[in-house]
Write a structure and sequence with these properties.
The structure holds two protein chains of two kinds. By secondary structure, chain A is an alpha/beta fold. Chain A has twelve helices and 15 strands. In chain A, β9, α4 and β10 form a beta-alpha-beta unit. In chain B, β2, α2 and β3 form a beta-alpha-beta unit. In chain B, α7 packs across α12 and α11 packs across α12. The N and C termini of chain B lie far apart (51 Å). Classes of the chains: A alpha/beta, B alpha/beta.
Chain lengths: 418, 419
């Protein structure tokens, strides 16, 4: 049984905020294949196309038949714990600061022997175990041995919380509370146990409307003025709450449905870029440094940055051509943000939904993503510690087509398919 | 079966030298190699220019390899080998050098295992030891081989009923031997209680199951028997040698080593039985591996290791002398030199240079090598049987007594600085 995480006491502001020492970051290029799958929450290992042997650690040729044709394939992770140890000494600062630390040696049913971080609920060897892949604080994949059947509070395991960004007891900024999506995210965060949710609204002098009224009545929620098109507004809010925010969820967006010819001029495209791209840039410049400084601040320190992108960021959807372009720009910028947040161990989570069931996708046929489904996907991404999430059937299908052949997808979209 | 291999007949192994160990050194590996070669030249009387073969093992030589060392030290060998295989490199060096001498590719080969140890060397070595370690073990707690051997030990204990006391007997006996070795870094008696109450490192591995990284070198010369005789050098003969890499790769966790595959070959080459061996120098990076070697080299059956150590005294004067120098558990692990420690000690034992550690009337010694935890187990295994030469020539007084490190005393408890 994992003891449920108790809310840590208030921090003494005089004490030094502990700085992050990342776990070992170096990997060979071939080993990054595990990271690529773990970034989406899957455990994948190389399997030989010719003889079927599963390989680990990652390598360039099959250990059984020497074939170079090794393909990454999803694994169930089922296996047996052969031995476990508790580390009381480490030469690496990250682990040294977190001792004791449990480790296991596992034989997968698929064959190979793996070294894993061991969840506290896994008992003595030999026992059945389930191995999963997670990103560690360095953003690199590590394997984790989970109990065959976990208890209710298994997410609160001390080791596992180092790998994930669970909103429980954390303080979160949601940049736009006016939209249905924003309100759904706020409700999902409150339900997930967030301590404080700051909710941005760009025009505080206007009447709130029913949705915003609803969430603002929640005791965890505080509305804050935030206009992402205005550098001063972003800067002022960062000055006020920047040093307290543990998770930033940037859901503010402008979505208009135009291509190039249907709407002359650049005003609408500029408005999209001003929020979707420059808004992210302004926000990251103001809140990024504060987040980085608090990434090792106890069990509920700063942990993640979430960007609401769009599946159209991968390939332009011509009926929403300028919106797609702004999301592609934001996607590119998020990769820069990810690189800059990496040294502090802050996870940048990109969410690529398909069409959301809102007014700007009125003409899109179903299935469309409900705001509550999208919100649940964001909370799940934080809890599972994934880096890229593609919620909804449309997003999943686009992703598959894009992975299969991006050029073919471009032609399909140009021909009016969706 | 492949055709019968050529014997190692006619090859002499001589001039064991030890460059005194220190916990930390600001010198580079080249300094320790230079000191080893200087001692080889001094002890043998062979001029440097006549050393025409060099076999080198070192982890801390980068960016150099053995060839860079030839220029650094002004050697011009006509045979050169670089074997960065750690704990197996003593056995591997001797096997290669012996064949070079037999074939006439070299007349006098210097085999050197040497490493330096700066304050932060060990941590850096762990992180870049192998690509598998970098990808699949170092990110998991960075415990280095400690956590891997914790798994191996835990599994062995569960499967064969070994207890910590059993492993403690090995460590305690080795410390007894080390107290008679002026070069051992550990100079305090170790009791079984000390062993059992030591702090946990990665359970069931505790402090005295671990070696202490240090700097130092071990070396010896390989030449023809005639040449050794002509030079008047006390020497030993090679009776047998085996090596094996990545054995039993399908075992999910290591319970046996490659010695087991080749041991019949080993004893057949020497035409002896395990019971004929007078002492063994096992590779002792962790006591569980010593126990495995007792089994896999045929001194007892698999799973009988715990009972074997309960029934045999393992000290120099015991019924089954093991690691008569104290082994690396008590001498310190001078990087790749640890793979040469059993070899130099065996040459000393069989040429009457072992002083107070002498195993009485020893004729045959077995040296085992074990090296390179690139992922979840050690990959290289090897063993040699060395025999006393029939030449009745008393050896010189122990050279290592002349090389007692002046600062050794201060390092005796240096492992307490492990954290």
């Amino acid at each position: 049984m994992t003891m449920p995480l108790m809310k840590p006491p208030r921090k003494n502001p005089v004490l030094r905020t502990r700085q992050m020492n990342l776990p070992p970051w170096a990997r060979s290029r071939v080993a990054l294949g595990i990271t690529a799958a773990a970034a989406e929450g899957r455990l994948e290992l190389q399997v030989c196309d010719d003889c079927g042997a599963t390989q680990y650690p990652p390598r360039e040729a099959c250990h059984r038949c020497l074939s170079p044709r090794l393909t990454w394939r999803e694994q169930t992770g089922e296996g047996e714990l052969l031995a476990r140890t508790t580390l009381h000494h480490s030469n690496d600062l990250f682990f040294r600061e977190r001792l004791p630390w449990r480790l296991g040696l596992v034989q997968l049913s698929a064959g190979p022997t793996l070294m894993v971080h061991l969840h506290g609920e896994v008992g003595e060897a030999p026992t059945r175990i389930k191995v999963g892949a997670r990103l560690d604080r360095a953003g690199q994949a590590v394997l984790i041995g989970f109990p065959d059947k976990g208890s209710a509070h298994m997410a609160d395991d001390k080791m596992l919380r180092e790998m994930t960004s669970d909103p429980k007891f954390r303080k979160v900024l949601v940049t736009d509370g006016k939209t249905e999506v924003g309100q759904a995210i706020v409700r999902a965060l409150v339900q997930a146990g967030a301590d404080i949710v700051w909710v941005g609204h760009a025009e505080p002098w206007k009447k709130f409307g029913a949705g915003l009224d609803d969430i603002s009545s929640l005791p965890q929620v505080t509305l804050v003025p935030l206009d992402l098109t205005n550098g001063r507004s972003v800067s002022e809010l960062a000055g006020e709450i920047g040093g307290k925010v543990d998770i930033v969820i940037n859901n503010a967006e402008v979505h208009r449905t135009f291509g190039i010819v249907a709407r002359r001029g650049t005003d609408v495209a500029k408005a999209e870029m001003d929020i979707n791209y420059f808004g992210l840039l302004r926000l990251a410049q103001e809140f990024g440094p504060a987040l980085r400084a608090r990434s090792a601040d106890g069990a509920i320190g700063a942990t993640a940055w979430v960007n609401l992108l769009s599946i159209y960021a991968l390939s332009n959807f011509p009926p929403h051509g300028t919106f797609s372009a702004s999301k592609a720009a934001a996607h590119s910028l998020s990769q820069c943000l990810r690189a800059e947040m990496r040294p502090a161990g802050i996870r940048v989570v990109n969410v690529f939904p398909g069409p959301i069931d809102d007014e700007w996708n009125q003409h899109m046929p179903p299935p469309k993503l409900l705001p509550s489904t999208l919100a649940a996907a964001i909370v799940k991404a934080l809890r599972d510690g994934v880096e890229d999430a593609y919620p909804g059937d449309v997003a999943q299908e686009w992703l598959e087509r894009w992975r299969d052949n991006p050029k073919v997808l471009e032609r399909e979209l140009a021909a009016g398919a969706s | 079966m492949s055709r019968r291999r050529a014997s190692y007949e006619g090859v002499a192994v001589a001039v064991p030298v030890t460059v005194p160990y220190v916990r930390y050194s600001t010198k580079s590996a080249h300094w320790f190699i230079g000191q080893a070669l200087e001692a080889l030249v001094r002890e043998s009387g062979v001029p440097k220019a006549q050393i025409d073969g060099l076999c080198l093992s070192s982890f801390s030589l980068a960016p150099d390899t053995a060839v860079g060392v030839t220029q650094h030290l002004g050697l011009s060998p006509r045979w050169l080998d670089h074997i960065p295989t750690g704990g197996a490199s003593g056995v591997m060096a001797l096997r290669r050098a012996a064949r070079a001498v037999q074939a006439g590719d070299a007349d006098i080969v210097a085999c050197v295992g040497a490493d330096t140890n700066h304050v932060d060397s060990f941590r850096q070595t762990l992180g870049s030891f192998s690509s598998f370690a970098r990808d699949a073990t170092y990110p998991y707690g960075s415990g280095g081989p400690n956590s891997i051997f914790a798994f191996i030990t835990a599994n062995y204990m569960r499967r064969y009923g070994a207890t910590r006391e059993d492993f403690g007997r090995i460590a305690v006996a080795q410390r007894c031997n080390a107290l008679k070795n002026p070069n051992a870094l550990f100079k305090k008696r170790l009791t079984l209680d000390d062993y059992l109450s030591a702090k946990p490192i990665s359970d069931p591995i505790h402090l005295f199951d671990c070696v202490m990284p240090c700097a130092g070198a071990e070396a010896f010369l390989v030449m023809s028997e005639e040449r050794a005789r002509g030079l008047g050098l006390a020497h030993v003969l090679i009776r047998a040698g085996i090596e094996r890499h990545n054995a039993y790769a399908d075992d999910p966790v290591m319970v046996r080593g490659g010695w087991r595959i080749d041991r019949d070959d080993l004893y057949a080459q020497a035409d002896v039985k395990p019971a004929d061996i007078d002492f063994v120098q096992t590779y002792d990076d962790y006591p569980v591996i010593v126990m495995m070697q007792f089994e896999d080299l045929g001194f007892c059956e698999k799973g009988e290791g715990p009972e074997f150590v309960r029934r045999h005294t393992l000290t120099c004067d015991g019924v089954f002398p093991n690691n008569t120098s104290g082994g690396q558990l008590s001498c310190g692990q001078a990087g790749a030199a640890a793979g040469f420690l059993g070899m130099t000690e065996t040459i000393r034992q069989l040429t009457d240079l072992a002083g107070a550690r002498t195993v009485p009337d020893a004729q045959l010694g077995l040296v085992a090598g074990f090296g390179m935890v690139t992922y979840d187990r050690c990959l290289c295994t090897g063993a040699m049987i060395l025999g006393r030469s029939a030449d009745k020539r008393p050896g010189k007084p122990p050279p290592d007594t002349a090389l007692i490190p002046s600062g050794a005393e201060q390092h005796a408890t240096a492992n307490e600085g492990l954290r």
